[in-house]
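Sequence only, no structure available. Ideas?
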Amino acid sequence: MTAPTRSARAHSFNAAAAQYAANRPSYPPALLDAVEELTGRPLEGARVADVGAGTGRATALLRARGADVIAVEPGLGMAAEFRRALPDVPLVRGDGNHLPLAPASLDLVAYAQSWHWTDPARSVPEALRVLRPGGALALWWNTSALDVPWIAEASARLARHFDIDVEAEKKIGTHAAGADPEGRLDFAHRNLRWSRRVSLDTHLANLGSHSILLTDTEERRTAFFTEERRHLQRVFPDGIVEETYDLDLLVALTAT
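Reply:
I predicted one. Tokens follow.
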């Protein structure tokens, strides 16, 4: 099978937005504590753009901290799911390469699980354009904790079945060199480990909401999930899966 294009993977979420919203993990409270520490200011009262907002997971957390949030989302399906969850939050269609936002209007531009879908040659200047002096760009991703034995084994099965490099997938964009290849920003980095306990069905549905699976054939997905369920039922006979994540956070401040 020909590997899906980056564009096809980026757009694949729109047809699975409800599945994404129902099963993807959120983020731990320590994330926003770290954002406040690294930016040197509270989120309460801050003017924030959540870019690539998807179904609104990060937006909801930012609002709960008291931030004044505007969401930016390019996908029709994801935007529709966002509006169902957060009907009173401003949402504009756009992406990080072309932010539909006013210059110097924001204290924070946040990308939750979405920076790797941008072109940093365009998204970095766009972030700098819309940030106020002393503002910050924050990027974060949940990534699988590959030092946990069952996760490493499951990742190896996924890699074999779909012919992917799991380590490379994990590292896409999650390091400063990848986030800004031209080195215009000085990123501080934090790694936060956290976990959640979910049903086996939720775990598999979460896995199935990732672009590498969404863009493969129905036949290959069905074969994979049948086998994966069998493996995981042996590891988690009570049907409850403990997913462990390494959350990578990058924060860069603009000049004052």
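Residues 6-253 form a domain with the Rossmann fold fold (CATH 3.40.50.150).
Hope that gets you unstuck.
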